[in-house]
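## Example pair
The file below holds two records. Each record gives the amino-acid sequence first, followed by its C-alpha cell line.
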Amino acid sequence: MAYEPNDRLDPRGEEHGLLGRYGHKILNWTLGFGAGIILLSVGFSSFYTLGSGEVAVVKRLGHYTQTVGPGGLHMKAPWGIDRPISVDVQKQQKLEFGYLTLDNGEFADLFSDSEGIGHYGTSKWNHLKSEWTETQKMFTGDLNLSYVQWAVHYRIVDPVAYALNTEDPKHIIMNVSESVMRGIVGDRSVDEVLTNTVKEKPASTIGPEAKAWLNEKMLALHTGVEINEVYLQNTRVPPAVQPDFELVNAASPAAQKAILDAEKDFNQKLNTAMGEAEKIKKEAEGYAFTVENAAKGDAGRFMAVLAEYQKSPDITAKRMLLEALATIFRNAGNVWIVSEGSADPIKLLNLTNGGLESVVGGGQK
C-alpha cells in the first residue's frame, strides 16, 4: 500500500506542514498582541487625573520631584516609576471626637444607641462606643470627671509636607488634638468646662485656645496642616451623676440670688465701714493737728519766756510768780481775815473788779 503524506502531521518543510504554513502568522500575531499590551500598559500608566481642588505630589523612584496641579489630566512616567499622591488643598476637612455626624445630618454619640445601631449595626456601634468612652472622659482641674465632645476643622496648606513628612497625618492630628483638649480641660474647673467659659476671662473659650495650641503643634511637627476651627459639640457630666447634677442646676438660681444678696449686703456694710473709718481718720488727723499746734505754741511761749529770763532773771522770775498767783486767785473772789475777838473781818486783798490785775501789773501793793 503506497504511503500518502498527511498535510497536518507532515513536518517536512513549510510547503507541506500546518506549522510551516501558519507559523509566521502566529508569530506576527503574538508579537503584535504583546506590543499592543505594552502600549496599552504604557498608555494607562502614563496618565492620571486630579479633582478640581487636588494637587499631586510626584515621587520618582521614591524621591520627590514635583508638585502638579490643580485638577485635570496629567502625564507621568509609566510602570510605577512616577508615583503621584493626590492631596486636596481646597477642601476644609473635619475630625469628630466622641460623636459622629450621620448621613441625615443628625448626631450620634455615646448616649444615642437607637440612632447609632440603626446606622452602623450593633457590633460596629458598640466598638465605636468603647472608643468614644475613652476619648470623651477627661478630668477637670478640680478633679471632676466630664464628658467632652468636640470637632476640629483643618485644611492642608503644604501638600508636600502633608504627603511626605508623616506616614499617617490624620492619625497625628487626632492624637495631638486629644492631647491638647485634655490639657485645656485639665486647667479649668468643671463649671468652666460645662459653660465653655473662663471666669477670669469671660471672652475666652476652650475652642479658640485649642485652635492656637494645635496650630503651634502642627507647625512644630511639619504636618503641612492649618487648623481653622475647634469647637465643642457638647459637654456633660457622667450619666451616673446626671440626675444629681440636674438637681444642682435647678437649685442654682436660688443659690445665685443668695450669693447676689450676700454680695450686696457685704458691699453696703463695707461702704459704711469705710465711711466710718474715713471719718475717724479725719478726726484723728484734726486732733493731731490741734495738739501739734498747741504744743508748738506752748514751746514758742516757753522759748520767749526763756529769752526774757536770760536777759533779766530776777524781774522775770517775779513776774512769773505774780502771774502764777493771779492764775490761782482769779476765781477765788475776795479774801477775808477774821481774827478771834475782832468784831469785823479784815479785807486782805481786793481780788475782784480789776484789783488782781492792778496788783499783778504793779498798781496796788
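Second record, same layout:
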Amino acid sequence: MTPIQAREDYAHQYSSLTDEELRRLSEDLVSLLPTARSALRAEMERRHLPSDGIDWALKLPYGTSPQPYSPRNRRGEEFHTERSEVVITDIRMPFTSMVVFMVKWAIASIPALICLIVITAFAWAIIIGLVSGLFERH
C-alpha cells in the first residue's frame, strides 16, 4: 500500500467518525502513524474542529511522547505497574518452525562462542605467563 493509498484509507475511516470520536483520537496522537495524523488533521480542519495540538504532534517521531507514558486499559484506567511473575507452561509451534528456529539459534550462537574462546585463550595466556614467570630460574 502506498502512502497516498494509506492516507486515503485513513481519510475515509475518519470521515465516518463523529466529532467526539475525532477529538478523542486527537488526544492520543503519539500512537498514530504520521500518515494517520495527517489524515486526522485534514478531517478536523474540514469540519472546522480545533486542531491546535495536531500541528505540534506532527513534529514528533512515531512512538515518542512528550510526557511520561502511562499505560491505560480500554476504559481509560491506569494499569497497575507492580511487577508480577509470569510462568509460561506451553508454546504451540509447528515442528518445522521449531526446527528452523533452533537452527537459526545455533547459527547465531557461533560468534558468541568464538568470542568466548578468544577471551579464554587470552586469560589462559596471562595465567600461564604469570605462573611460568614465578618458577623461572635466573
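Notes on the second record: The first helix runs from residue 3 to 15. The chain has two domains: 3-58, 93-138.
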